[in-house]
Amino acid sequence: MDARRAPRAVIDPKVRKVGFFAPPEASQSGPPDPISFQLPPSSNSLSPVMIPPPCHAAENLGLHARPDATSPSAEESVAAGSYSSSSEFFHAPMSPAPSSRIVLGNGDFFHGAASSPGRGGGGKVASSFPRGGFDLTVVNDASLAIREIEKAGKGGGAMVEVKDQALNAKQKKEKTSKAERRALQEAQRAAKAAAKAEGNKASVTLASVNVKPAKAAKPPQKVDNASVAASEKRGGDRPPEKDRKKDVPQPRMQYDDKSRVEKAKRRAVVKQTEARNRVELFRHLPQYEHGSQLPDLEAKFFQLDSVHPAVYKVGLQYLSGDISGGNARCIAMLQAFQEAIKDYRIPSEKTLVRDLTAKISSYVSFLIECRPLSISMGNAIRFLKSRIAKVPLTLSESESKISLQSDIERFISEKIILANKVIVKHAVTKIRDGDVLLTYGSSSAVEMILLQAHELGKQFQVVVVDSRPKLRGKLLLRRLVEKGLSCTYAHINAVSYIMNEVTRVFIGASSVLSNGTVYSGVGTACVAMVAHAFRVPVLVCCEAYKFHERVQHDSICSNELGDPDVIATVRSREDVNHLEAWANTENLQLLNLIYDATPSDYVSMIITDYGMVPPTSVPVIVREYSREQVWI
Amino acid sequence: MWWRSASFIMDRQQNEAALKGESSPNPNPNPKISAYYETRAAHHGVVTSDWLAQAQAAIGPEPDPEPQPRPDPEKPFSVIDEFNNWRKQPHLAEAVAAIRALAAVIRWSEATTMMQLEMELKKASDSLKSWDATSISLTAGCDLFLRYVTRTSALEYEDFNSAKSRLIERADKFGEISYKARNVIAMLSQDFIFDGCTILVHGFSRVVLQVLKLAAHNNKLFRVFCTEGRPDRTGLRLANELAKLDVPVKLLIDSAVAYTMDEVDMVFVGADGVVESGGIINMMGTYQIALVAHSMNKPVYVAAESYKFARLYPLDQKDLAPAIRPIDFGVPIPSKVEVERSARDYTPPQYLTLLFTDLGVLTPSVVSDELIQLYL
């Protein structure tokens, strides 16, 4: 349909796996010859999100150049193009360990990336790290060291490829202990600088391409990812930890990063069992067995004194799915925080600003454990934390608490409730008599629009398109039919058939990203694409507080995974439940995505509280809005 | 193509003007700042006398030929009369006339508080808007005027009279800038017209005429294809004007656009209104010309003053209030036959290449940015 989407189809599904599965023969074979070890064992081992261009170039041209670069005498060529911090680092420790080879290559792609400073070091790391290279569990120390190296390299925006078959773990350990220390220092230094530069910026624009990280490749998030991991190793490393806390909301956790996951588990309140068969492409996202946490949490209620009961309640509601929908979740969270602030007492010898921020952070991480945050919630938390940080020291405890509570109140009423009213006011002007409006899933804003238009006496029809497994459209449908609207209900399978008769498509959004990409419930992209093909205008209704400055091109790098069981089985339908006990079968992976990203080409208009804007104007709103956020 | 950027053109023009001598009555004190940024600054509400001087200089040291209308002290002031008064001048656009009329409202207002004055202004602009509800530029011009004039630090003056005089000053300046927008646009578009090019124009637009006039004046060699512009045949009028300038002109019937498009190097159209998506609303036929040009990879340039930027967002052709006009087919039409009488259509932004405005040469997506910054 669209030329720009073609390349994706080229990727063979088999290829996707191989970024993580090492081909068995690679792990068995002896030390590879100096030329071929650079290359992935087969072209298959390129993970699709790993940015092929530099690697292909290496395959074609770099055959002779690369081994050259690995020889200890060619350190200059190794360092070329990377920052001094990383190159300096590579001098000492690596040369005595000739068996490990590190290739620093600055592909063209990275020049562009690295040239944007202030974005968490800006470096993007793509690394292919087939398991054949290391046995990670055995050579743990060595691999950690390598990870450190990569972290350091990341700061320099270099591409680090670490691959070695004949790595001697012991020797490696001795040789790199010094390197490790240095890497720590480097990483911390970089983290400090980055944290300073970034201020309170919430998260880093991720290049979607290389976000699926291989085992050791940290995603190119903030450098303070590195600092977190680093401080983790040292035990009590205060300053970076503090820096990280200031940074709200926390960087997204990559769940294929074992050490971090371990650490998170230790802190975790909610005991989650990991799903046994995780979908390879989405290993960086949390994949848990569903349904096991609730009783566990309930039993723990009296042991958890750190979490405020209101927050606890909201968390449970998220977990059980009682509260869903972007606005509802956000409001519930904010109200819980309001309660928590009301009951909050400043401990002696602490200040409100610091202690409350930490407190809120712990609540947030509790909520994340219950269900990953949506982008809008992240924005709301960012707002709250900035308000807390701005509480004047002269205010008394009760005064500052009251002011914070009223801030939250105002955020809810202005940014969510009033914004919705304004959106409805704008959107209703776009509904004419005789229209057939299609909506997908259930969006509170769209529902209000439809009801308002009906109240105004407009004659129109509604098509509610729905999809398994959530079937949230049914609830919307019920409320619409109750109010007397004439509705049609269809599943997404029928969307191309029904689109012929539709004159407008209204959809809600979980978030709108600054390249105009609409991040919304899974299936929205499909509906929008069909509508675009039929030349039906697609109107996205989204409050401005859900806008985010991140850029995302696909639905892979950041997403949420739902319970795979609900797509495997259909309740009360014995005849189609062929997969009943199959969920744990080795060669079956069930993928239940929650969100997807709709490219801006398919969006005709975004209706927000600032009026109707084209998707190209989202960055303007983000800019103006974040300025306003400071004012409130 | 870097040299085609608006600011560069403006800078060069200003530098040349500055080089020409200090004899000009209003030399630009800061030739580095382009009109584009000045206007932007104005939209952000940062207006200094410095800026006004620069804007003046950028537009050129052309004296204002307008006579100051004197109000009749006996008769109560009516904004419509004032508007009609201004509208009589043939070269004055409707929106500019409205802006001038609104400025007069401030001048002759008897209000004693800022609030009163604002309400009076609001009422006047509402009555102007209702005078012709279908005119996009009139509505947009009034809205912009209100935003421009009232969104100012002048409202912080403690003394009403000084605040009022500040408002009058701003109103006059806005009127002047709008009045001279056409010249700015003509200047900006010169670098896009190269020797030997063929330009297709549709309908009669004073801005486009000004552009072509200036190009002819600059001794550019180009040829113009004029569409006929049925039903009011405005193309004929444009061809007439161009013939006077000794520009080679060829007249086409409206349906010959696709036939001649392969000879055409660029399409130049005016606009009734520029909408928030970056698309334009213009005389019927613009959309199909843009479609043909787009499919043959010819650039479509729109010349439009910034007071035509409207807070509208049509989703499709039928999504705006139609402006009905009579169509004469020359033969009697049976009463059963329907006639499409709409006078204008909407061209979506993806078919437009660039917009020449007095804010600079913009891509369609910038229009919305400007509007957001103005109205937010």
Automatic annotation (TrEMBL), chain A:
- Compartment(s): Cytoplasm, Cytosol
What are the Basic and acidic residues biased-composition ranges? 231-262
Residue ranges of the region described as Disordered: 21-89, 111-130, 213-269
| Listed Low complexity bias regions | 73-88
Give the molecular function GO annotations: translation initiation factor activity
Q: Which UniProt keywords apply?
A: Cytoplasm, Initiation factor, Protein biosynthesis
Please name the SUPFAM superfamilies in this protein's record. Answer: NagB/RpiA/CoA transferase-like (SSF100950)
Q: Name one GO cellular component term.
A: cytosol
The record's family statement is: Belongs to the eIF-2B alpha/beta/delta subunits family.
Q: How does it assemble?
A: Component of the translation initiation factor 2B (eIF2B) complex which is a heterodecamer of two sets of five different subunits: alpha, beta, gamma, delta and epsilon. Subunits alpha, beta and delta comprise a regulatory subcomplex and subunits epsilon and gamma comprise a catalytic subcomplex. Within the complex, the hexameric regulatory complex resides at the center, with the two heterodimeric catalytic subcomplexes bound on opposite sides.
Protein name (Swiss-Prot/TrEMBL): Translation initiation factor eIF2B subunit delta
**Source species:** Cajanus cajan (Pigeon pea)
From TrEMBL, chain B:
| A Pfam family per the record | IF-2B
Q: Where is this region: Disordered?
A: 59-78
UniProt entry tagged with the keyword Protein biosynthesis: yes
Q: Where is this protein found?
A: Cytoplasm, Cytosol
Question: Which key words tag this protein in UniProt?
Answer: Cytoplasm, Initiation factor, Protein biosynthesis
Q: Which InterPro entries match?
A: eIF2B_alpha/beta/delta (IPR051501), elF-2B_alpha_N (IPR042528), IF-2B-related (IPR000649), IF_2B-like_C (IPR042529), NagB/RpiA_transferase-like (IPR037171)
Superkingdom is Eukaryota
**Is Protein biosynthesis one of the keywords?**
yes
Recorded GO terms, molecular function? guanyl-nucleotide exchange factor activity; translation initiation factor activity
Q: Which GO terms of the cellular component aspect does the record hold?
A: cytosol; eukaryotic translation initiation factor 2B complex
User: Could you tell me which Gene3D superfamilies the record lists for this protein?
Assistant: Translation initiation factor eif-2b, domain 2 (3.40.50.10470), Translation initiation factor eIF-2B, N-terminal domain (1.20.120.1070)
Q: How does it assemble?
A: Component of the translation initiation factor 2B (eIF2B) complex which is a heterodecamer of two sets of five different subunits: alpha, beta, gamma, delta and epsilon. Subunits alpha, beta and delta comprise a regulatory subcomplex and subunits epsilon and gamma comprise a catalytic subcomplex. Within the complex, the hexameric regulatory complex resides at the center, with the two heterodimeric catalytic subcomplexes bound on opposite sides.
Q: Which family does it belong to?
A: Belongs to the eIF-2B alpha/beta/delta subunits family.
Protein name listed in UniProt? Translation initiation factor eIF2B subunit alpha
